[in-house]
Amino acid sequence: MNAFTEVVRWFFGLFIVVAGIVMTIVRKFLDSWLIAKGVRLWWLTDNVAGDGKPTAEGVEVVRDRYGEGWREEAHWLRPPGAVEGAKGIVLSLHGGGWACANAHVVMHSMTPYVREGYTVYVPNYPLAPKKRFPEAIVALLRAMRHLHELHAASAIHIIGDSAGGNLATMLAAMCSNPSMYASISSLARSVSPGVDIPGFDSLPTVASVTSIYGILDQSSHNHPIPFVSSLETRFTSFLYDICIAIYSRAAEPKVTLADWVDDLDAMPPTHLICGMRDPLVHSHSRMHWILKQKGIASSLHLVPGARHAFFGVPQLFFSGLAEAQRVVVSNSLAFLRSVEAKRLRTLKAAPVA
Directed axis angle between helix 163-174 and helix 135-150, to 10°? Predict the structure, then answer.
């Protein structure tokens, strides 16, 4: 039995190495001039976003850098000629299994938020296997400091999908729990001595966080899902396991929000969205329950019939995703409106000094 286990571990390790090479090739392709040119071209076509409007309508794209490190560049999405939307800043984090994709191939999905009145900041971040946990998180903390210090953002909303949903919830948790911030900062310094880690007080407040089919724990995706074949569930779950293995470190396996539950004393208002045919649906239901038990404001929306990665795929290529994307945009904007309304009620109720 031990010999068999060792053989399985050896093959799994080999597969992780191969998968890492494949993801690196995919990442290089998605970072290529060809893809960047294609993205610019489809913005000029009749591609439609999740609000039913042309992707580029009322949106200006401006490049930016938030640091000097690898992949520490970003894109601003904002109303033409405006520095900041009237409703503030949304930090949008792309998915891709922590190992591939980039801001410019998925930022089309965020243009409805600009038309709603937000300015959206879409950063790239260091990717695995070259950079593993917690290096992407530390880079994104620098992006948050950049927003706070250079763009006077006192509070931001964070939205992420898939691996980006994982990063969004981890950042929100870190910025609400000093002990968790200190633990991950300590690990980052052990990995990269001298690394630039922003001080806890140098960051904007996280006003809310939205995870769209984010990776919130490391195991519940292996459970069966009603109306989804066991073969599909096992294959999808295996891919999640590979991504987690490529991203995590043996020295610190706690890479998801569920791994840090004991450290969670606070969280900003949290909104969890997942397709009902995505194996990650279990983790979203579980995390929603955990947060509610801790007295943290949490809401959950499950999208009927939807699988993984439906939000960032252009309708130009898969028109059948239009309804699911519409649901996510409508639902997440309603959540942001409710957070803002509650904030305004709190301000009006506060005694005048």
Answer: 60
Tokens for 69, please give them: 């490190």
* pTM above threshold 0.85: yes
User: Pairing mode, if any, of strands 89-93 and 119-123?
Assistant: parallel
Contacts of 65 (CB under 8 A, 6+ apart): 72, 73, 74
CA 154 to mean position of chain CA atoms: 20
**Is residue 126 within 8 Å of residue 136, measured between CB atoms?**
yes
d(CA 190, CA 235) in angstroms, rounded, equals: 35
Count of other CB atoms within 10 angstroms of residue 340: 16
- Any idea how long the chain is? 353
Rounded CA separation 115/112 (Å): 5
Question: Which string of b and e fits 7-26 if b means at least 16 CB within 10 Å?
Answer: eeeeeeeeebeebbeebbee
- The tally of CA atoms less than 13 A away on the side-chain side of residue 342 is 11
* The residue type at 94: H
Peptide bond into 224 cis (omega under 30): no
In the DSSP assignment, the letter for residue 257 is G
Query: Could you give the CA distance from residue 308 to residue 306 in angstroms, rounded to a whole number?
Result: 7
Q: What H or E segment, with its residue span, contains residue 63?
A: strand 60-65
Q: 179-208, pLDDT tens digit by residue?
A: 999 999 999 999 999 999 999 999 999 999
Q: What token pair was written down for 101?
A: 């994709």
Q: Report how far residue 275's alpha carbon sits from residue 280's, in angstroms, rounded to the nearest whole number.
A: 8
Query: Do 270 and 296 touch, CB atoms closer than 8 A?
Result: yes
- Over residues 88-115, the pLDDT tens digits come to 899 999 999 999 888 887 888 999 999 9
Whole-angstrom CA distances from 299 to 30, 64, 65, 209, 322 are 34, 33, 33, 11, 23
Nearest Cα neighbor of 213 from 118, 328, 317 is 328
Nearest to 20 by CA among 308, 254, 242: 242
Residue 96 DSSP one-character state? S
